[in-house]
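ok new one. same drill as before - structure tokens go in, u give me an amino acid for every spot. 295 of them this time. try not to just spam alanines like last time pls lmao
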């Protein structure tokens, strides 16, 4: 038996879909504007796959944010509903752009992702796309976590965004330190700049797995609108613990699934994309399991 759908419900769905389409469509032009390039030329004339991968990551990230924005009970007023969804959509896009800048200037401070993407470096495109999707996952969970339902809910979302950037920075630095130890002082960012796609895929898996694990923290911590500070401290503490647990558990799973294979040599030296996809899938799978169990 189908639920009865009134004209009001149809209007709400129509408004949300229109805003969603506009927001997703804007990603291509916004990324082109920030990169200072013509998106049509990059995608069709120059066949810049790296730029296309980056845009795809941004579109998916915005979709995740909009998914959270339109979920839950709709407003009793159509104008208020449109305004609420539009504000969250704009805020989400803004967070993604800030995250892209942080990723380029701080997290990958020795590698200009923007420049490398313009140079058709697919590794850079994968890294940038993975970062945006990871942020989309985290922002999505933050929007579902906060229970205010109004514009004031952007405050905890912004705080989760800041906290997640810190954690993603730490994870990236740890990955860099591990790579440096394995390769006698060589830099992870330098290897990515040379176009090692397998290395980029593995990194993407680690980041996405971390993002999914972080989103599980929202299921373990109750959001208290009257005590945002303690809510955020608790969220950050739980997020750190989950992030710490993710790596050893994923490593054990990797050792079982890829037993008998020299993973470091295959990915880092031989640039074996197949092995890289498997390792990335393992980290993402463990992230989903954390989210399912705890979130």
């Amino acid at each position: 038996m189908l639920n009865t759908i009134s004209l009001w419900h149809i209007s709400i769905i129509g408004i949300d879909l229109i805003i969603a389409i506009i927001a997703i469509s804007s990603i291509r032009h916004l990324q082109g504007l920030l990169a200072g390039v013509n998106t049509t030329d990059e995608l069709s004339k120059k066949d810049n796959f790296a730029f296309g991968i980056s845009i795809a990551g941004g579109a998916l990230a915005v979709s995740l944010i909009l998914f959270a924005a339109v979920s839950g009970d709709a407003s009793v007023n159509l104008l208020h509903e449109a305004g609420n969804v539009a504000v969250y959509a704009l805020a989400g896009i803004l967070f993604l752009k800030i995250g892209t800048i942080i990723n380029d200037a701080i997290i990958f401070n020795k590698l200009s992702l923007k420049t490398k993407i313009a140079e058709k470096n697919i590794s850079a495109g994968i890294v940038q796309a993975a970062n945006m999707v990871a942020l989309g996952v985290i922002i999505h969970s933050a929007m579902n976590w906060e229970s205010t339902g109004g514009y004031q809910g952007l405050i905890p979302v912004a705080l989760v965004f800041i906290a997640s950037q810190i954690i993603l920075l730490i994870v990236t630095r740890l990955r860099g330190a591990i790579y440096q130890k394995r390769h006698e002082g060589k830099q992870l960012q330098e290897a990515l700049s040379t176009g090692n796609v397998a290395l980029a895929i593995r990194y993407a898996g680690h980041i996405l797995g971390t993002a999914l694990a972080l989103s599980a923290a929202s299921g373990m911590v109750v959001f208290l609108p009257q005590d945002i500070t303690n809510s955020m401290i608790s969220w950050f503490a739980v997020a750190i613990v989950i992030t710490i647990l993710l790596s050893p558990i994923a490593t054990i799973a990797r050792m079982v699934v890829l037993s008998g294979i020299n993973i470091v040599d295959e990915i880092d030296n031989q640039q074996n994309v197949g092995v890289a996809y498997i390792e990335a899938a393992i980290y993402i799978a463990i992230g989903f399991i954390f989210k399912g169990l705890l979130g």
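The chain is about 80% helix and 0% strand. and btw Residues 216 and 294 are 5 Å apart (CA to CA).
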